Amino acid sequence: MQVVTQDGNGIRTTPCPECFLCAREGEVLYEGLRDHVAGVPGTWRMRRCANPECSLLWLDPKPVEADLLKAYAQYHTHGTAQAGTRMSALSKALNSACRLASRLGDQFTGLATQRRQLRKMFLGAERPGKLLEIGCGGGRLLNRMRKAGWEVEGTDFDPKAADRVAARYGIHVACGALADLRYAAESFNAVATSQVIEHVHDPQALLQECLRVLAPGGRLVVTTPNSRSQAHAMYGRSWRGLEPPRHMQIFSPGALARCARNAGFLDVRMQTLSAESAGIYRASEEIRMAENQGAPAASAASRIVGSWIRQHEEFVRARQRPDVGEDILMIALKPQGVSPGRQPAGN
Q1: Residues 135 and 76 reside in one and the same domain
Q2: What's the alpha-carbon Rg for the chain, to the nearest Å?
Q3: Three-state SS for 85?
Q4: Which residues contact 122 (CB under 8 A, 6 or more apart)?
Q5: Are residues 88 and 16 part of one domain?
Q6: Which 3-state string (H, E, C) describes 126-160?
Q7: Is residue 341 part of a domain?
Q8: Farthest-apart Cα atoms in the chain, separation
Q9: Are residues 185 and 234 in the same domain?
Q10: How many CB atoms are closer than 10 A to CB 241?
């Protein structure tokens, strides 16, 4: 395996020219991507699978797994502000007013229902049982679900995040990769992971481990950025969802469904969501401004108002084009009668 250190950031990388799902060499989609979120030095290349039914995006070269933490030194999980999200007091007030107006309109469009379901990771209608959240961050979902009667546990790679959840909510959070934590087989009724799988070095292995720890009939709920989203089509290399080098792969709905089936899940349900897309449009506009210094820039007010308008446009459009929402939602059920040692089918 060839390993090279990226100039200026100390992150070692290894070539990754092929789609891990299709085994096809990907076409170069973007060259010279920079980290506008946390300021990691260096530039990055992103490829796209040539199979139109897949359309997986991934970094080539990608960071070596042992060096991934270096990409998070200035990330929001460590308490620093993200680039492209700092707002003046006046902008914050305008954004709050737009959010309120949007919430009122959401009651008539169905977006409010989607947002409420997302708050509980689409588990609100399920009978309470034992829940594991992978990458629990600040612990808000765990706290909500515990109040709803669930027995909850969490994992996170960041020990600071784990300590904050324990201090604030009294919920234990284990630190480390899921496979390294060695949970007992079939020990959870539900596993939830929000905006995590795009950060994982081996997403196929993660889903296989989720299958192992789920009880038969258990439910896996995943959200992740959508490579086919309206915002990606609009902003291209400035799309906030790219986030190199932390997002090592970005799925299309078809690619994520295939990954889950390869892991052994049979009942896989897909849709896309718009409930959190306003911030993505605003941040993408700011990234585009940063990349095109000297070009005429939209005012802060127009960026804020425009982001909320585009969110509603996206939600309405998704009724005819279900794959254009900003985020993918995948709900996958573990088959009944699957033994803990079962090996999932290959690609």
Answers
A1: no
A2: 20
A3: coil
A4: 221, 329, 331
A5: yes
A6: CCCCEEEEECCCCCHHHHHHHHCCCEEEEEECCHH
A7: no
A8: 61
A9: yes
A10: 23
Number of domains observed in the structure of the chain: 2
Tokens 């803990």 found at: 340
| For residue 118, pLDDT beyond 90 | yes
DSSP letter for 112, please.
Answer: H
8 A C-beta contact, residue 167 and residue 161: no
72: containing domain: 4-119+177-333
Q: Is the pLDDT of residue 282 over 60?
A: yes
Cβ of 112: how many Cβ atoms within 10 Å? 16
pLDDT at 78 over 90: no
**Choice between 254 and 160, residue whose per-residue pLDDT is larger:** 254
4-5 and 173-175 as β-strands: parallel, antiparallel, unpaired? unpaired
**What is the mean predicted confidence (pLDDT) over 271-290?**
95
Element (H, E) at 315: helix 300-317
Q: Which of 177, 76, 179, 180 is nearest to 135 (CA)?
A: 177
Contacts of residue 157, Cβ cutoff 8 Å, sequence gap at least 6? 69, 135, 175, 176, 177
pTM flag (> 0.70): yes
Residue 39 has pLDDT above 70, yes or no: yes
Closest of 217, 231, 262, 251 to residue 330, by C-alpha: 251
Q: Do 143 and 45 belong together in one domain?
A: no
The full DSSP string for 266-312 is -EEEEEEE-TTHHHHHHHHHHHHHHHTTTS----HHHHHHHHHHHHH
